[in-house]
Design a protein that fits this description.
This protein is mainly α and 361 residues long. It has one domain (60-360). The chain is built from 17 helices and no strands. It has helices at residues 5-35, 38-60, 63-80, 83-98, 106-113, 116-129, 134-144, 151-163, 168-177, 179-189, 212-248, 251-265, 269-277, 280-290, 296-306, 312-326, 331-360. α9 packs antiparallel against α17 (331-360) and α16 crosses α17 (331-360). It starts with a helix and ends with a helix. The model has no long low-confidence stretch (mean pLDDT 84).
């Protein structure tokens, strides 16, 4: 006979905990309604003011939303033409030396070519198809956030470097392409060790057999689904929390501390905060206007930081949401890997800003 008493007790404890939190919430809201009812309305307005400019002005009315749809479409077209197969086969010899699945580089390359959201949508299934372990999929995420997520960001950054009198080629080589090899090597030896080499003959074909026109149309539809069902909801969550923290008074001190930290690691504070909180492309546009008049180290640092998986809404919201649906990793594992990648990016920023810049000016 099955004893249901233990299960009933545990369910009762969980329900009791939820009920206590619910009662506390009701009591707190009741007190607020009595003492100062406008607090709730003002808090909601603050959240709305943070979310609306990003979701509506940038993603719906601006170029970013359209670029996500086009990036997925172009990525699927490249995949159909055999780009993924060719890239993996080029990377196999080096990956075998590092004893890691060569597919870890795919999301990073698709990020350089298109968009971080499209990179997750396309790269996640490729990682699964290649038989990558969960650790290797986490390495792929950390590697992906080492490169910029829009071509316009890259071009504006190059203009800023030239205006500051900096030779762009070594910066691009060290900041964009070298991490595709260095990050997987470092992480496979430290945090994510469950990796294995895969022989070329054991890799499947990654080129789909769908008709070309159908591939392009499905890619565009997939991009629209990605934008409206994953990207925009994730952004709304992150920026609504920022709006709430701003209303409480916690966010401004954090922004001030962040500004001091950016100056310390070699990033122009104004453009750095824009890259972290809003848009790296917008940050590079701002940097272009002031590049000739500020310290070259700050220009290089801002460029390297913008050439990453930022803004923060991508790291905290979009990457976990997209990778948890399209790969074997959970949202928490994807978030952890993305944060590790961004921490490594800040280390790269400091090394290049203070170590490489004096040699280029």
């Amino acid at each position: 006979m099955v004893d249901l008493s233990t299960g009933a007790e545990e369910a009762g404890k969980r329900a009791g905990g939820s009920n206590r939190i619910g009662l506390l919430s009701v009591a707190l809201l009741g007190i607020i309604f009595i003492i100062s009812p406008e607090i709730i309305g003002n808090a909601f307005t603050s959240m709305l003011d943070k979310v609306k400019p990003i979701v509506v002005d940038i993603f719906l009315m601006g170029n970013v939303g359209v670029s996500i749809i086009l990036s997925v479409m172009v990525g699927r077209a490249l995949e159909r033409m055999g780009f993924t197969d060719a890239l993996i086969r080029l990377f196999v010899p080096l990956a075998n030396r590092m004893k890691i699945n060569p597919a870890v580089v795919i999301p990073g390359v698709y990020n350089i070519l298109g968009d971080i959201n499209a990179a997750g949508r396309i790269g996640g299934p490729i990682m699964k198809q290649a038989g990558a372990t969960r650790d290797e999929q986490c390495i792929a995420i950390a590697t992906m956030v080492q490169s910029q997520q829009s071509f316009s960001c890259f071009m504006l950054g190059l203009i800023a470097l030239s205006l500051a009198g900096i030779n762009a080629f070594p910066v691009v080589l060290c900041a964009v392409f070298a991490p595709l090899v260095i990050v997987p090597f470092v992480l496979s030896r430290t945090i994510y060790r469950n990796t294995r080499a895969v022989a070329l003959k054991d890799l499947p074909s990654f080129t789909p057999k769908t008709p070309p026109f159908q591939t392009i149309f499905q890619g565009a539809r997939e991009g629209a689904e990605l934008l409206f069902l994953l990207v925009i909801p994730a952004i709304a969550v992150i920026y609504s929390l920022i709006g709430l923290l701003d209303y409480i008074g916690v966010w401004k001190p954090f922004e001030q501390s962040l500004s001091g930290f950016l100056g310390f690691v070699g990033v122009h504070p104004g453009t750095g905060i824009t890259a972290i909180m809003a848009s790296p492309t917008l940050a590079m546009g701002q940097l272009q206007e002031i590049a000739a008049s500020i310290d070259p180290r700050l220009v290089v640092g801002a460029f390297v930081l913008a050439a990453s998986g930022l803004p923060l809404s991508d790291v905290l919201g979009q990457i976990p949401a997209i990778w948890s649906v399209n790969s074997d990793v959970t949202a928490r594992e994807a978030l952890t890997a993305a944060i590790i990648g961004i921490i490594m990016r800040f280390i790269t920023v400091t090394i290049i800003a203070f170590g490489l810049t004096p040699l280029l000016v």
